[in-house]
Specification:
Distance between the termini: 48 Å
CATH topology of one domain: OB fold (Dihydrolipoamide Acetyltransferase, E2P)
CATH class of one domain: Mainly Beta
Oligomer: single chain
Shape: extended
Number of strands: 6
Order of helices and strands: EEEEHEEH
Radius of gyration: 22 Å
CATH superfamily of one domain: Nucleic acid-binding proteins
Number of helices: 2
């Protein structure tokens, strides 16, 4: 058995481009940037960025087009696919390698648009200012499981 599986977590490099296919379905294309940090042979920290072309189809494409913007983090799973075509202007054969999206998850910015800090939800709650009346009030005593009506 062979395996063609890609897992990436990065930020969108541009707003998704949503188009309609002749069949009536939707397709979304966008770029994704990932990076890695390492130490070179001199012991200095280096950062290397890779850019990936992502394509999504159907309802997934619609959701991507609606909720994602440039800079937003996203986790994607998919497969690598290379397309080829003849360039009509030059007569050359062109190639494009892309990730065909099969599954995705919103990044760690808490559902807000744009590139938010990488802190968790607790960090963002702490930064929201003084606690207002919408704070959840928990009972002082322990809850007995037998008191739950179901």
């Amino acid at each position: 058995m062979y395996l063609n599986k890609v897992t990436l977590y990065g930020n969108l490099t541009r707003d998704p481009e949503l188009r309609a296919l002749p069949s009536g379905g939707q397709v979304a294309t966008f770029g994704l940037a990932t990076n890695r940090n390492f130490k070179d042979k001199n012991g200095e920290r280096q950062e290397q960025t890779e850019f990936h072309n992502i394509v999504a189809f159907g309802r997934t494409a619609e959701v991507i087009g609606q909720y994602f913007k440039k800079g937003r983090p996203i986790y994607v799973e998919g497969r690598i696919q290379t397309r080829s075509w003849d360039d009509k202007a030059t007569g050359e054969k062109k190639y494009r390698t892309e990730i065909v999206l099969e599954n995705f998850q919103f990044g760690a910015d808490g559902g807000k648009g744009g590139g938010a800090p990488a802190g968790g939800a607790d960090d963002q709650h702490e930064q929201s200012g003084p606690k207002g009346s919408d704070e959840i009030k928990y009972p002082d005593e322990d809850i007995n499981p037998e008191d739950i009506p179901f």
